[in-house]
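Run Activator of HSP90 ATPase through structure prediction, thanks.
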Amino acid sequence: MPVTDITKDLDNRMLTITADFAAPVDRVWELYADPRQLEKVWGPPSHPATFDAHELTVGSTTKYYMTGPEGEKYYGTWQLTDVDAPRSFAFEDRFADADYAPAEGMPVSYNTYAFEPTESGTRAVFTTTYDTAEALQQVLDMGVEEGATSAINQIDDFLAA
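Sure, done. The structure for Activator of HSP90 ATPase is below.
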């Protein structure tokens, strides 16, 4: 399984997931840059993703939704704030409604995805910060740790296919 470490730090309002992939940095970057590939691994297997807009350029807005087992849809957006291809990108991730407007009362996360070469492939460090410890706890209670882990753990198989 690619996920090798998960650190929850409520004092600093941060969730960090580390994963090691058996593919070079350029190939992992390609997965995150291509919405059709990213759809295959963004959500957990029970909640596949669909990207309506996605481009890894500063200032762009990604629009996506995940579809649950009963057909329910969960919408979100990314606002890209930094891109250093193929090493890292940063974005604000928001829950959204079906029109991609920010969902009232839902936490916003600030994310940095960083990729470094290793002898066997790529180490990815996914760092997510929230405005408050309560916001981090809210998404932890919603299952973000389990969902992110199961999504990330699909990546090696996808890249090998």
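The chain has a mean pLDDT of 96.
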